[in-house]
Amino acid sequence: MSAHHMPVSVTPEDARVAPKPRLRRYQQASWDEKLVFELGAPGERGVLVPAPDPSIDVPEIPAALRRGTPPALPELSQQQVLRHYMRLSQENLGADLNIDVGQGTCTMKYSPKINDQFVRDPRIAALHPLQDDDTVQGVLRVIHDLEQLLKEISGMDRVTLQPAAGSAAIYTNVAMIRAYFTARGELEQRDEVITTVFSHPSNAACAKTAGFKVITLHPDADGYPDIEALKAAVGPRTAALLITNPEDTGIYNPRIEEFVRIVHDAGGLCSYDQANANGILGITRARDAGFDLCHFNLHKTFSTPHACGGPAAGACAVTSELAPYLPYPTVEFDGTRHFLDHDRPQSVGKMRPFHGVVPNLVRAYAWIMALGAEGLRAAAETAVLNNNYLLHKVRQIPGVSVPYAEGRPRVEQVRYSWEKLYEDTGVHSEDIGLRAADFGTHYWTSHHPYLVPEPMTLEPTESYSRADLDEYAAILAEVAREAYEDPETVRTAPHRSSVHRVRPEALDDPKTWAVSWRAYRRKILGEPA
Length: 529
Known about the structure:
- By secondary structure, this protein is α/β, with parallel strands linked by helices.
- It is built from 15 helices and eleven strands.
- It is globular, with a radius of gyration of 27 Å.
């Protein structure tokens, strides 16, 4: 037997595969990649565009519209472009890469990839929003049918899918409230909107943007919206109540119908922010609680991608009394064909160009149809089960507390507090979040102001397994151990991420902001304007 064919001796120790550690050995890619404008060289090209065929009559561009100099675009080959964006993609975290339960209130659930195939189909991707109705009957049917599904889910009479995101949907509802009271000649009198401090901040922001005075209710001693404070605030100047339920604490307001009745008795309208609907889907409905309007975030509850803050999709649902004020055009069906109705004289107008974020409408429609009514309820129940399982695990970590509603279950998320850990170690919640990045996970604190000291908000959704939740809880336990035994490691994190700690003071100084390449060259490189 030649040496080439000698058997290799393998000892049991050599063959042993290292067991998976309790915590992953994570190291984020760090490419130190330049900006795309700093790459390439003059004359490099990704595509050589041929000159027009001389036989084709190309009309001259008017002299007034011609550029004086070529645009200052990057000049790169296709391979350079591919490498650049592949490197950037490796420096990311995201729902397709990590256990994304740490972005509480964002409802980071799995977005089925089969739904992306539907969207990329040329019959969707190649549509033009100005096509004649008769040539787009399929997508109009999808929009119309999705509206019917959301009517059933909310209990409302009409739906619009035009808003481009959740906050845009809240603003749409506020615009319809304003139009409603304008039509009744009461807008000058009703100039106040009531919300709660643990509702999404967009409710107060949209009401203020629309010209209303905002009254914010704080929680009572148990963490519930204070009904006595509502009774004191409501009156003839009340236009509406804008409220999230469950709130971002994960606490469901059991007196929500009483809240609605109090505002209705004063002549106001009630708008239900259902951005936290993932734990009550198929269980409660906005209309059954007496609400006049509501909205959903399709990129949260109905699984369409968040896409780093856009493009998302929002849906507003209203009673028949408010239907005349819906944005136009509405999608209608006459029994034989679908069509766009632009003749809506009381409409608040358009909330965005054309018909909404159609790719996400298709994804949401596919997700609902794949689950069916029983599947939607099962998703909600699993989300609640996952949340309360994680709550049980996190409660056992030293330094964590769960403020408000002692002994009561939470719905789909929890706002925890690291106040005890901070008092013991000086480590802030933000430090824990940055250290969590060293284990390849996201982490979020809270909206401001921090009413819950040293907050942390977790929302598991229905997408994550028990093993996923155990791993995430183990990461938090490990970071808490480090905070008590080696706090400097946590305070100086991240250590294994693509970037190190960002100095926050730069975010407060407009002189350091550079939101374009031209601004970067002027402000950072010191080149003349």
